[in-house]
Amino acid sequence: MAFPITRLRRLRYDKILRNMVSETHLSVNDLVYPLFVCPGEGVKKPISSMPGNYQMSIDVLVETCKLAVSKGVKSILLFGIPESKDEHGHVGCSHNGIVQQALRAIKTEIEDIQLIADVCNCEYTTHGHCGTIVDGDVDNDLTIETLAKQAVSLAEAGADVIAPSDMMDGRVGRIRTALDEAGYIKTPIMSYAAKYASGFYGPFREAAESAPQFGDRSTYQMNPANSDEALREVAADIEEGADIVMVKPALSYLDVIYRIKNEFKMPTAAYNVSGEFSMVKAAGEKNWIDEQRVMMEVLLSIKRAGADIIITYHALDAADILNNN
Ligand code: PBG
Predict the structure, then answer these.
(1) Nearest CA to 85 among 97, 95, 102?
(2) Given this model, what pLDDT does residue 1 score?
(3) Is residue 66 domain-resident?
(4) Is the pTM of this model over 0.85?
(5) Separation of 88 CA from ligand 1 center, angstroms?
(6) What is the pLDDT of residues 41-81, one digit of tens each?
(7) Structural domain containing residue 209
(8) How many folded domains does the chain comprise?
(9) Which of 60, 62, 78, 255 is deepest in the core (most CB within 10 A)?
(10) Residue 187's domain is classified under what CATH number?
(11) Which of 170, 173, 178 is nearest to 148 (CA)?
(12) What pLDDT digit, counting tens, does each position of 134-151 carry?
């Protein structure tokens, strides 16, 4: 039916009706809040390029988790800044590693929370790359051994979900086998399946002190030009046992989220990464955009593209808005 019988604006005049015919809904249940834990006590060190985010010692971290849960954000993604680093990232596999300690502390103090542990070596290696260096490049098959150890150690410490972010080939399968052999058959893997070599990770590397000391990550993370390859990455991870697949970053890759959700119909996560967050914050601080409005629009667009789960530094601010509606 054409105009004037059809008038698409008819459904837009009334707010209640607008909400009723809204096709996409954001919920606090969709949100995962990333946090950075460091050694010490009473430490809450601001991350300058990510306003409102901090490196936190375990005591402060536990309080922040309680605050998140009180707002309905019950899923936390943990990153660690260790006391010391080594060439292979072995400190990340230690029973007394910073993230392992944090997991135990949160689990003792908070019941209704889900802890996702990022699995990667870049926070734990002296050179800042995501694995063991052989002949100037990250050695795939040596690295997945360290990752498997780290994953088991994190599961032992209380991680509810294991999230490998390294982009080595075969790591999901290797981690799945290691978890199963250690008895963690019920622990899901959320794989960073399509993770791009992106400039949007800049602020995170300040936060996690994980910038590569030479070269970049383009021999292991994906080329931003590719999306067919993203489907192959996701297919491989599902084949190897991934329970949830992730696209990262989110905003410049909404097409990839859309294709992956359509093709695989898997639980799909998207990481609204540090640079995406910081751009909104910076423009908001200058009053060049309405920060809260843009934040909600960004999160909604990621959901509309097909993501079921959104990992975002905006989680608590978004929860405040969602809880008030
Ligand atoms: C570790 C890792 C990174 C991010 C999450 N896990 C950084 C990187 O790959 O360099 C980035 C997250 C963000 O920018 O918010 N490999």
Answers:
(1) 97
(2) 87
(3) yes
(4) yes
(5) 18
(6) 999 999 999 999 999 999 999 999 999 999 999 999 999 99
(7) 26-324
(8) 1
(9) 78
(10) 3.20.20.70
(11) 178
(12) 999 999 999 999 999 999
